[in-house]
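Collaborator request log, item 7. Partner lab (contact: R.S.) asked for a structural prediction of Ribosomal RNA small subunit methyltransferase E to inform their binding assays.
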Amino acid sequence: MNLALLFDEDFVAQNRVVLRGRRLEHIKSILRVSTGDQLPVGRVNGQMGLGKVIKLTDSETELVVVLDQQPPTPLPLTLILAMPRPKMLRRILQTSATLGIKDIWLINSYKVEKSFWQTPWLSDENLRENLTLGLEQAKDTAMPRVHIRKLFKPFVEDELPALLKGKQALVAHPGTSAPCPTHLNSPTALCIGPEGGFTPYEVVKLEEAGCQSVHLGPRILRVETAVPVLVSRLFDACL
Ligand code: SAH
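Returned to partner:
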C-alpha cells in the first residue's frame, strides 16, 4: 500500500478520515507510522495528497488530509479478457489496476470453465477490494470499471464493434503472423484469451468485429504474465 485509498464512508469531516481494518493494520505494522507522521493518501476518483496522523489506537486511526495532486494519467486501454480462473482473476485485476487500465471487460469464451463465473471474486465488493489493492500499489485513485459479459456471441456481434470505434483493436493470439505493435499511446482495445486460448472461430469473430491478431513471439505466456508484457510493449508508460 503505497497510498491509502479513501472512500466517502471514511470521511468524518471535509478533511478528516478515520481508518480501521486492513488499512489500519498496514499503517501500523508495515509503514510503522506514529502520531504526527504523514502518509500518502488519495480519494477514490479524486485527488491525492498527504494524510497526517492525529490519532492512532488499536482499533482506528484518524488523519487530517490535504488532497491537492492529480492521479497519474490512465492508460488509453480497454482490456477485454476471457474470464480467467478465480485465483488468477484476483491477481489480474490487481495488476491491471496497478498498470493504469481503467476499462476491463470479462467475457465468455469456449475454453472458459462455466464454474469460473460462480466465483465470489466477481461480487461488486470483491471487485472493488482487489482493484483498490492495485490502485494503492500504483499510487492512483481512478477506480477501473469492470463489465461482465457471460455470452461471447452477443458481446462480439452486438457490443464490440461500437466499443472498438476510434480505437486500434488487437487480439493477442499465439502463432499468428503479425508481431504485437509498440509505441501506440492512443486509444487501444486488446483482447486476451483464456488459458486454453481463443478457438479459431472466436478469433475470426473478433477479427470480423475489427480486431487484428498479433503475437508476442513463440513463448506462450500465462494470462497474468501476458497482461503486463502486452501493456509494457504497447505503451510508453515511463516517458
Ligand atoms: N493454449 C493456447 C495459449 C493460451 S495463453 C495456445 O497454445 O494457443 C492465454 C492467452 O494469453 C492467449 O489466448 C493470448 O491472448 C495470450 N498469449 C500468451 N502468450 C502469447 C503469445 N506468445 N502471443 C500472443 N498472445 C499470447
